[in-house]
Amino acid sequence: MQMNSSVNEFILSGLTQDVLMGKVIFVIFLFLYLTTLLANFLIVMTIKYSQTLGSPMYFFLFYLSFADACFSTTTAPRLIADSISEKKVISYNECMTQIFAVHFFGCMEPLVLILMSFDRYVAICKPLRYTTIMSQRVCDMLVNLAWVASYIHSSAQIVLALRLPFCGPNDIDHYFCDMQPLLKLSCIDTSVINLLSVFNSGAICMVSFIMLLISYALVLHSLRNQSAEGRTKALSTCTSHIIVIILFFVPCMFTYTRPLTVFPVDKLVAVFYTIATPLLNPLIYTLRNAEVKNAMRKLWCNKL
């Protein structure tokens, strides 16, 4: 897997070099990670086995929760382990694998959010044709397209990463492997690769964000003709989605839509979209959705 490089491993700087702070980070992020897994697991299992959550919105929510759990798993376990390790070493192959996984599940999330916004648009703006447009066959096809698009995006990133030769030093100023910190360590001119990487990841962030804004703008525009009750229900659902979109896309655009410039705040921003957002998503969708809460309560009470 390694190409044109004399470096066999990298040393991650982590979030802190202080031993005491490392122990604090270990406790906090272990709790956050386990809570993320539990929350997303509950949503996945509830949607899978509940008979009342069979609509396309919950079909897409199933995959959003799955992608959230996987996305958090790509970075959180290593951050937790490294926080109490003296030497935060990651092999070259592990680093490349992490880049692929981070971009695969990181791309899957905005694509599923687009599918959810499309579902809300059809449900609110074209209610009479909703069941025809959002059939199970169409939903399956859309999710499969999202998987394929995520694979293409992450494959493009890993191809660029594999073209980078590393001659030393091998200290990555981050808590996980990503293109921006790796570009700083390469011993060749990385301006072209950086441009391609920004175009790849940045384009996905910007295009997805614009598509989501347009879809929700159309939804909000159409709400003028709805009844007061229907308008309140639709606004509640759309508000949840918009909160998720802002929480995910603002940090991502800050990271992936700029040229090769590393800021001290980058690691904190990355914590927000790799660890905080996968935890907040299930909380937002359950706490603001009475249907999910009722189905979850009924299903798990019966199981217990």
TrEMBL record:
Gene that encodes it: LOC110258736
Native organism taxonomy: Eukaryota, Metazoa, Chordata, Craniata, Vertebrata
Transmembrane segments: 20-45, 57-80, 100-122, 142-162, 201-223, 235-256, 268-287
UniProt protein name: G-protein coupled receptors family 1 profile domain-containing protein
Keyword set includes Lyase: no
Compartments in which it is found: Cell membrane
Chief localization: membrane
A GO molecular function held by the record: G protein-coupled receptor activity
Key words, A-Z: Cell membrane, G-protein coupled receptor, Membrane, Olfaction, Receptor, Sensory transduction, Transducer, Transmembrane, Transmembrane helix
Membrane topology, from the record: Multi-pass membrane protein
UniProt domain G-protein coupled receptors family 1 profile: residue ranges: 39-285
Protein family membership: Belongs to the G-protein coupled receptor 1 family.
Function: Putative odorant or sperm cell receptor.
Superkingdom per UniProt: Eukaryota
Transmembrane helix listed as a keyword: yes
GO cellular component, one term: plasma membrane
Organism the protein comes from: Sus scrofa
InterPro entries: GPCR_Rhodpsn (IPR000276), GPCR_Rhodpsn_7TM (IPR017452), Olfact_rcpt (IPR000725), Olfactory_Receptors (IPR050427)
A Pfam family the protein falls into: 7tm_4
